[in-house]
């Protein structure tokens, strides 16, 4: 859709020229000055957000010095730019005045001279463009042009290495004397292939000398990383609302870092979740909150007031810290709703959230099992063990083989599968430990032995049984949360039943624990694991000179009751009244409306996002029209089933409140991405980390590798490098 200039007596639009158009600023004071200079009284009553969204000024109304051309494809304004060039008199030339006859003659003459005027105007514009180009982009000397071409070649090489997950340095530090690093080898290849810019630069360089120092390579990487990040941040700023998502900790140079993702709806109304950076994880919870705020606001120019959700995919000891971070963020920004992440099964999230050592051991062991059976050889050994153990029940064996596909340790029913697989799993580990044919490496044998020792502990068996039974009540609820929009809506309305079931278990904990303990004893007896109280607890009891406790009451007090209470508390925290109100607003999606016979009441929940709507006072009337539109549609018209599908409708723009509402809802991290079946930013990051040994991980290369789909402008990279480091290069 073309942009029209809002200045008085200006008829320019974006389809008629290559002229840049600029939004009114969101800052209220700057926006007020723009409106005053425009002399548009009809704009004075509008808010800065409304003006920013719907009105533009073309570049002709700004002093050329205020307009910056950052690349051949992008023109931006300086932060202090104010429009000052306006035509405020031409509207006085009204043909309906008493001088009509004279004006007719003038008009006729104008038409007669139209072609001449067009030619003169085009020449003048060309001259102005040439002058502007000369002013903004001064003529470069041959040496400067050659230097820029050289930089382009360097940046092309760095981007290629990043996209292909190739580290700049060789595999082993000791090899640096024997061969050049990967970056230098690639430059050699390009020169041999005819890259003249590199040849001229390095033709006098000694054969074995290093082309670029480590410092210079780091500068190149930083600029590539920042350029790619800025491309994504521009889209986030345009969309305004976003959600914050963090991933599992990653360690660089013995320091833990938190992967940071942002979820937003872009200008094409497509939901995106992009990887932006790694944030240092050191310090306490308030320090981490402060660091996240500084990253988002000070460095990236976003506003935490526009954050509408947060999800933290934490595991192990980081879980408790990230829960505290989420609470602190919600205290400061109440609409940054803390929700489960759509990438993680709810039951996995709930188990990870429990801070008990025995539960954390189970979850860590699950992650180790998942990694252990990624190799085909170990997977084949597991399937052989399943066939052996279930040879008298082939149907059960076949079902279990089908269930233990790659990724089974991250599924909703993981604890059910793990319990059924426990006997063949231990048999598999014993076979790998024996390693009679010698086909497993020593490291694989050691890992298998370690996993088997962990599982062959009665406390772990009891914990798995308790987790399986308690999380049975949340399994269907969690599966619906990761389903289609209609499933999520019904999940939000079924939470009361889930909590009722958990409360019923808690009220009758003695009965339930007795059944679950018997199940654990039965499993332990089958795989010859002794039923006993943990050794560490017994030692503490003897030290305190307290009488010995029996196994069943011990596991009730220290496993069953803490797990059920922890799960109930986490469910209530993650699905608070505000969170449920937000999810119930999914009834705005036409397919959900249809399922509810168009008898929905979004108005009851809309107060959560009232301040995010362009015209909140008209929301009830607009919602009524929205329902009528779909209720009385033609028989051939299909009801859109997702937020994405609804936002793609051409006439949704005629419902501005509904449009804004859906965009905000779409950013909630609990809702699945439209392309969740294909690769995601978190999946690409994990693939990068899995593709090379940890000592070769690099934050900047990870950024380039994960975001290969983001367009990068080599000229922008060159400009940034010249501004930052020209002096260093010119001294060489």
Question: How would you describe this protein?
Answer:
This protein is of the alpha+beta class. The protein is built from 30 helices and ten strands. The chain has three domains: 21-87, no CATH class; 213-334 and 608-731, no CATH class; 351-575, no CATH class. Strands 5, 6, 7, 8, 9 and 10 form a six-stranded mixed β-sheet that branches. The chain has a two-stranded antiparallel ribbon with strand order 1-2. A two-stranded antiparallel sheet has the order 3-4. Helix 13 crosses helix 15, helix 18 (472-481) packs antiparallel against helix 19 and helix 19 runs antiparallel to helix 22 (551-574). The longest helix has 26 residues, at 214-239. It is globular and about 95 Å long. It starts with 20 loop residues before the first strand and ends with a helix. Mean pLDDT is 82; it is low at 91-118, 127-137, 171-179 and 727-732. Keywords: DNA-binding, Metal-binding, Zinc, Zinc-finger. Residues 1-86 form the THAP-type domain.
Key descriptive features of the protein:
3 domains; 732 residues; IFN-induced_PKR_regulator; alpha+beta; 10 strands; 30 helices; globular; two-stranded antiparallel sheet; zinc-finger; single chain
